[in-house]
Structure formats: structure tokens, C-alpha cells
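Appendix B. Chain record.
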Amino acid sequence: MSFKEKLILDKIPRHIAIIMDGNGRWAAQFGNERTFGHEHGVESVRSVVEGAGEIGVKYLTLYAFSTENWGRPVEEVNALMSLLVQAISNETDELMKSNVRMQVIGDVKSLPEHVQEKLNWSINKLQNNTGLTLVLALSYSSKWEITEAIRQIAADCKSGIVDPANINSELIDSYMNTSGMPDPELLIRTSGECRVSNFLLWQIAYTELYFTPKLWPDFRKEDLFEAIFDYQHRERRFGKTSQQVVS
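C-alpha cells predicted for this chain:
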């Protein structure tokens, strides 16, 4: 029996986030440059998006490019930007057929202009779809996001829009890039690394973490279903006792 067949369909996470790690190591296994791994990682994205849509996941957030990634060799960064544009061009029609919407979080203005244009084109084309929302985290880091939120809240307090006495977690949520989305119930990281790498730190306060040794270009929707199957057999207490959760 496949993991998909084992899933409890009324307990599918609404929001799943994935740190897509291991492209470079996967490429090195074949004696190729890191970009070879990134190219094959697109196949994994396609499979996972398809799988998430099949089982009714509402939001899938993929950590595609962090603010720290700007520090990589210029050749690799340029190749990643070109691959992003190519992937958007190639996949948008299929996303349309699958009723997928797309959003972007992160410092989008720092991306090259032609990348911003292609992203906006795809987002606008898919905006009326009602199925899975694919969220790409690009030029994103959680510390950047939180800093920007604090800066905007401070400015709104100064201008009288926000009363400091009314600042609470719900208000802070509304200033995050993910405003309007549920927090992720499940965060998956591939490649065997066991850290969250400055990703959605505010949002994953009670998220279940799942680490797999599989490198991202080898990850497919059946691996996604396995991670969800594992998630469904965990007890989520949110600070309460087991007895309180059961009762």
C-alpha cells in the first residue's frame, strides 16, 4: 500500500513548507556543477506541487532562494535566476490546468527586473485559480521579514495608525509576508540537515518538523505523502497535556 493510500484525508495539513536542500550534493555525485542539481530539482517541484494538489493541501511554501544565497558565486546566482525564469515560463500553463495560484514572499524588489516581470506575469495569470496556493520564498529570510514588520509597525505607531497598547501576535501576523495564510503545520527539510535556516521563524512556532536524508532532486510526491503520514501520527498538543488534547 502506498503512503498516499494510508493518509487520513480529513487530517491533511492546510499549509506545508519545504526547505529544498541538497541540489549541489546531488550534482556532485554525478561529477557535475551545482546548477545541474538545481535543474533537476525543478522536476521535484513539479512532482510535489502535483501531489499536494491531489490530496487537498491549501498552501505549499517552497524556500527557493534565501537572502543569504546572494553570497554564492555570481555564476551560480545568475544561473539560478535564469532557471527560475525558465521554470516559470515552462510551468505556468500546467499550473493553470491544475487550478494552482502563485504568490511570492521575500524581498522581491531585490530580484533582477526581468525576474520580477516574469513572476508578476505568472501571478496575474493564475490569480483567479481556487486550488493549491504555491508560495515561492525568494530573496527571503525570516530575520529580514521580522525586521521589516517591526519597522512598519513602528512607523504606523508613530503616525497614529496603531496604538502600541494593541500590539499582539495577531497584529504582528498581519504585517508578515504570509498575512492571510495559516501557519505551516508541517515543515520538511531534505538532505539530512537538521536546521530551519532562517525560514518562517515566526510562523513555525508550533510546526511539526520532518527531516529526510533524501536530496531534493530525488524527492517526489510519494516522499511528500510519507512525510504527511508521519505527521498524522504525531500528537499536536500546543502546550497542553496529552489528556487535555484527548478530552
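Further analysis of this model is presented in Appendix C.
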